[in-house]
Amino acid sequence: MLKKNCKVLLNIFQWDKDKLLEKFFESESPEKFFNNNKIRLSTSESTDIISKIGECYICFDSKLIVGLQCGHLYCRECWGSYLSTRFREENEAFPVCIDLECKMVADDLSILKLLSSESEKTFYKKFVFKTAVNSNPNLKWCPGNDCERIAKCLSSGCQAIQCKCGTLFCFVCNQEAHEPVPCSIIKRWMKKCEGDSLTMKWISSSTKDCPKCGIPIEKNGGCNRMVCKNNSCNFQFCWSCLKDWNVHGYQGANSCNRYEPNEQEKAESRRVLQRYLHYYDRFMNHKNSLKAETTYIFSWLKI
């Protein structure tokens, strides 16, 4: 397996090498494995692109045309427009060939040679790096202010991590370290506390959490088929019932019933709100006291 292809495959399998190897050895042959995943990889170690003078079949200009090892050649301007759309709008770090019938996946070094704009090259390098970090479950960005360090989990089940910048955070949810409180409870609490009431009301009425990773998603179209844009998730589900779309499908679109809360549940919601405000006041009091104590300690140390 070529080194450049390994990077592409690891990205497709979200850097889960065990899952990648499992799927690879389950297949009857390497060809079957690639076909099942609808990908075609270069068999040449070289990242050199093919080029010649000819007609671009997109803009129909006669000029220098370039392409991958598959031999589909187009001008740099058309390649640049296509690739920029794929990684800027579609969030694809390794797009397939520009030819509609070709499934060859372009590696990052080849893409940099196909791009002519230096600004696009710079953007793409940063994008590939961020994609690799975001899709790797063993890597996390430090949430500290102005810190661009990356934390790596060296053991299974790690939770509290301290960065070299001093930030102590939870590796699982990227919030402040909160052991022994579970991440699910912290998430619910932070959702209640963040932002003003109008913002929270809009989020509650206009978004739903992805059933798989929990990231809020806004519905901006008419179709109930939703796709999570989190690079490490990409889960597809029904907006109405939140069921897996692979099980739900378009056939089950009419079976999603609308839910109407009754008066008893509304009264319960008011009771829950009062309970929340009771604990929120005390939470903010302790938080402000901690800030004041920290400021006092540092001022004392300076003396």
Explain the overall architecture.
It is an enzyme of class 2 (transferase). It comes from Panagrolaimus superbus. This protein is of the alpha+beta class. Among the domains are: 3-135, no CATH class; 195-255, N-terminal domain of TfIIb, CATH 2.20.25. It has helices at residues 3-12, 17-26, 30-36, 76-88, 108-114, 118-135, 183-193, 197-206, 245-248, 263-302, and strands at 50-55, 62-67, 74-75, 139-141, 150-152, 160-162, 168-170, 207-209, 216-218, 225-227, 236-238. The longest helix is centred in the C-terminal third of the chain and has 40 residues, at 263-302. The N and C termini lie far apart (62 Å). The model has no long low-confidence stretch (mean pLDDT 81).
Q: Return the average pLDDT rounded to an integer.
A: 81
Please work out how many helical segments DSSP would assign: 10
Q: Give the low-confidence spans.
A: none
* Separation, N- and C-terminal Cα atoms: 62 Å
Report strand order across the widest sheet: 1-2-3
Total beta strand runs: 11
Percent of residues in helices comes to 40-55%
3D shape: globular
**Major sheet characteristics:** 3 strands, antiparallel
Cα Rg: 25 Å
Percent of residues in beta strands: 5-15%
Q: By helix and strand content, what is the structural category?
A: alpha+beta
| Helix/strand order, N-terminal first | HHHEEEHHHEEEEHHEEEEHH
Keywords: Metal-binding, Repeat, Transferase, Ubl conjugation pathway, Zinc, Zinc-finger
Pathway: Protein modification; protein ubiquitination
InterPro entries: ARIH1-like_UBL, E3_UB_ligase_RBR, IBR_dom, Parkin-like_IBR, TRIAD_supradom, Znf_RING, Znf_RING/FYVE/PHD
GO molecular function: ubiquitin protein ligase activity; zinc ion binding
